[in-house]
Design brief:
heterodimer; A: 328 residues; alpha/beta; 7-stranded parallel sheet; elongated; B: 267 residues; Rossmann fold; 2 domains; two-stranded antiparallel ribbon; binds flavin-adenine dinucleotide
């Protein structure tokens, strides 16, 4: 079978069994790449799937769904690598799209090394250049962008979450469902998943937040973060931070935004006392509206901000909070 | 548990990523970045791996070896790393291993070849990604080549008999994963920041062995290349468009900002 016209997405599922948002995003990217070219978008999923699941995937852009029934749906590196091995040997897709999610960032290098083919990780944009993919990736913490193409097939790329846009669900779309035979002995696996421990928090998670108020080193200390939490209560939003406040213990490190923290793209991101180092910008520059407060008019954060105030956050936060209370 | 835990830390030399963006000179013709006026350092992510290793041998006994691959590796940079708590360092230093053109596959291959030459190890630790290429592929690559299990994004590592338990970072907590030793683990900054070496340790480090190899010394089959092409390298352009809210009195500006954002239906 020649699958070079197939763009295959690796399907992921949320814990509640629904299709993971990143998979819908990748299907959207797959459809864009397919365009009107006659290329087909496939998705491969682990575990038995009923029609509601496969139907959903088709309505969201898949032309083909490959179901690897013998592989457990819950991610295991060895099982998923075997599944993708089977896909690449039997179907031979020209492109393999993987989400740069906790699962995908683990899986993508494993399968690339297994197949001895090139891989671009954490890509922020993919497009065709003739019949080859071009993958854009931030390097040096975001100081530069590198564009890569492949000398090997399949062209494997892991794509940053929220880069793709799902297509509008279309229940009239049709597609094929095929079983994928995978030979895998789970009992021989060395990678043994034991349990998940959820962070205990009553706060809104950064990834889920529509609005984030974030503080940097300019906050000065943990006391000042209390003011930020008060503002967050008024806005019913999440609190984030640059790295120094996390390192100094003013706020838990799970609140760090940036290349080594969370990559977020909320509707509104308000940065107080954050200078705008590239490693931080990489984590928030795709927010829809960016507002910055900083004593330094030259601070780099103003390069990406839509609205700004030059001044001391210690005076601005209370005034801002009080006015919002009045207006909302 | 192994008698003595033997750990290799893979530590990449990179231009100091804390340096201002202006110190990374980008040549789009040659598709390379040249650091200007900033010193080479161990990639901060790999420093996390070193810290993890030192914590483990403090607890269980054993030794830590440091391994770097690249061009023009600085003996003093690797000496500082030894001083943090390692026994020795190995540097595969070769013009052929220029980090500007070295891809993940080649890096993983050379590291694996060097590790084989160094001896037997229980644990191979790396950072979650390199601070320059940010690829995060090498840990899986070493594991593949050496036939070992790999766990990525470790927040903590516990040795239990001939296995390790790893708390692996998730966006909303962590998961616990167990693999047999020997194994490859990539760690996150949550492991803890690297400790400062004591002056006495820096002195002592000078007496510890630093081995230098060329690519040919370790890679019998030669250096593999070119699974990927780097077609372009550019600086993202930002168009400043910030609307500044100004007022006589600074708290007045805070109130005006609120007013503006509500009017514009942003908040
Ligand atoms: C490998 C690597 C990974 C990294 N990952 C991350 C990451 O994930 N996330 C991250 O954020 N950083 C990360 N960093 C660190 C990053 O390089 C910067 O050091 C960091 O983002 C700076 O944080 P900051 O802006 O809060 O502090 P600073 O750069 O010190 O800026 C503080 C700002 O506060 C302003 N200020 C001071 N006082 C006041 C006041 N009273 N009112 C208003 N403004 C005030 C100052 O003008 C200044 O602009 C990483 C670095 C490396 C090397």
């Amino acid at each position: 079978m020649d699958g070079s016209n197939i763009i295959s997405v690796v399907g992921e599922f949320a814990e509640d069994g629904s299709i993971a948002p990143v998979t819908l995003e990748l299907l959207g990217i797959g459809r864009e790449l397919a365009g009107g070219s006659g290329k087909q978008v496939a998705v491969v999923i682990a575990g038995p799937a009923d029609e509601s699941v496969t139907g959903n995937l088709i309505a969201q852009g898949a032309d083909k769904v490959y179901v690897a029934e013998s592989i457990e749906r819950k991610y295991s590196p060895e099982g998923y690598v075997k599944m993708l091995d089977a896909l690449c040997n039997q179907v031979k897709p020209g492109v393999l799209l993987i989400g740069h999610s906790p699962v995908g960032l683990d899986l993508a290098p494993r399968i690339a090394f297994d197949l001895n083919v090139g891989l671009v990780t954490d890509s922020i944009k993919v497009e065709w250049s003739g019949d080859k993919l071009k993958c854009y990736k931030q390097v040096y913490g975001g100081i530069a962008v590198a564009v890569y193409s492949f000398n090997t097939s399949p062209q494997i790329v892991s794509i940053r979450q929220r880069v793709g846009t799902p297509i509008a669900r279309d229940d009239s779309r049709s597609g094929n469902v095929e079983k994928l035979d995978v030979d895998f002995d789970a009992s021989a696996a060395r990678y043994n998943w034991l349990e998940k421990v959820e962070e205990e928090t009553t706060e809104i998670r950064l990834e889920d937040a529509e609005v984030i108020v974030a503080g940097g080193r300019g906050m000065g200390g943990g006391e000042e973060f209390k003011q930020l939490y008060e503002l967050a209560t008024v806005l019913n939003c999440a609190v984030g931070a640059s790295r120094p406040p996390c390192d100094s213990g003013w706020i838990p490190s799970s609140r760090q935004v940036g290349i080594t923290g969370k990559i977020v793209s909320p509707d509104v991101y308000i940065a107080f006392g954050i200078s705008g180092a590239t490693q931080h910008l990489t984590g928030m520059q795709d927010s829809k509206s960016i507002i910055a407060v900083n004593t330094d008019a030259e601070a780099n954060i103003f390069q990406v901000a839509d609205y700004g105030v030059v001044g001391d956050l210690k005076e601005i936060i209370p005034a801002f909070t009080n006015k919002l209370k009045e207006l909302r | 548990m192994p008698e003595e835990l033997k750990i290799v830390v893979c530590a990449k030399q990179v231009p100091d990523p804390e340096g201002p963006p202006s110190s990374f000179e980008l040549n789009s013709e040659e598709k390379r970045i040249t650091p200007r006026g900033i010193p080479p350092v161990i990639s901060p992510f790999d420093e996390n791996a070193l810290e993890a290793a030192v914590q483990l041998v403090e607890k269980h006994g054993g030794t830590v070896s440091i391994l770097g691959v690249g061009t023009n590796l600085s003996a003093s940079v690797y000496l500082k790393a030894i001083a943090v708590g390692a026994e020795d360092s190995y540097m595969v230093d070769d013009p052929e291993l220029d980090p500007a053109i070295l891809d993940s596959v080649t890096t993983a291959k050379i590291l694996s070849d060097a590790i084989k030459k160094m001896g037997e190890f229980d644990l191979i630790l790396t950072g979650r990604q390199a601070a320059d290429t940010n690829a995060g592929q090498v840990p899986a690559g070493i594991a593949h080549i050496l036939g070992l299990p790999v766990v990525t994004l470790a927040q903590s590592i516990t040795v239990e008999g001939d296995k390790i338990k790893v708390n692996r970072e998730l966006p909303d907590g962590y998961e616990v994963v167990e693999v047999p030793l020997p194994a490859v683990v990539s760690v996150t900054p949550d492991i803890g920041e690297i400790r400062y070496p004591k002056i006495s340790a820096i002195k002592a480090a000078k007496k510890k062995p630093q081995t230098k190899w060329s690519a040919a010394d370790v890679a019998g089959e030669g250096v593999p290349r070119n699974l990927l092409n780097l077609d372009e390298l550019f600086t993202p352009v930002r168009e400043p468009h910030c609307e500044f809210i100004e007022a006589e009195d600074i708290s007045e500006a805070g109130a005006m900002l609120a007013q503006k954002l509500v009017e514009e239906k942003i908040l």
